[in-house]
Amino acid sequence: AIQLTQSPSSLSASVGDRVTITCRASQGMRNDLDWYQQRPGKAPKLLIYAASSLQSGVPSRFSGSVSGTYFTLTITSLQPEDFATYYCLQHYDYPWTFGQGTVVDVK
Amino acid sequence: QVHLQESGPGLVKPSQTLSLTCTVSGASISGGSYYWVWIRQPAGKGLEWIGRLYTSGSTKYNPSLKSRATISADTFRNQFSLTLNSVTAADTAVYYCANYDATWGGMDVWGEGTTVLVSS
What we know:
The complex is a heterodimer of chains A (107) and B (120). Chain A is mainly beta and 107 residues long. Chain A contains no helices and 11 strands. Chain A is globular and about 35 Å long. Chain B has strands spanning 3-7, 11-12, 18-25, 34-41, 48-54, 59-61, 69-74, 79-84, 93-101, 107-110, 114-118. The radius of gyration of chain B is 14 Å and the shape is globular. In chain B, a hairpin with a 6-residue loop joins strand 4 (34-41) and strand 5.
């Protein structure tokens, strides 16, 4: 199974900060990775698909990129509603696997 | 607008079978290019992919479940279901159904989740 190492596991930030979260894949997998946001008690929400495509309706402050086996989610100016947990998901090979999650909380 | 809703018992006894249903509206589970997916999340932990059903009827599962999971479709009722047998306390979790767009990518529609407790 493809392992996704997501980092950091948590971070503290302030409104307006630039936030970067990384998922490192254990092998090459094209661009078959998505990013999800999960608020407490809610289902995950798709932010980015195919590594860098912004899902319709998601604010443009969210972006995704890839370099080799390193996938990055960037939030350019953190907003109050962005304090949440973020997960990456690979669907290149079975079983699909999630990263361990990154909790973004208030500094 | 696709909408998904999970349903099923909230309490299952150890060694018994967990059965959940996801009712789909706004799309046909036998049409288009979609994967119909089950995912779970133990309290305070991360997300685990359980398996998926393709519109063709093919299925894939997470080997971590040791062949205990089965995903099936009821095209008449436009539902898909998860059956997990021989459950233990480790299967206690929130279970989500989701829709993955195989054309564009990404699970853009999720159910609200249903909590299942395995306990005697």
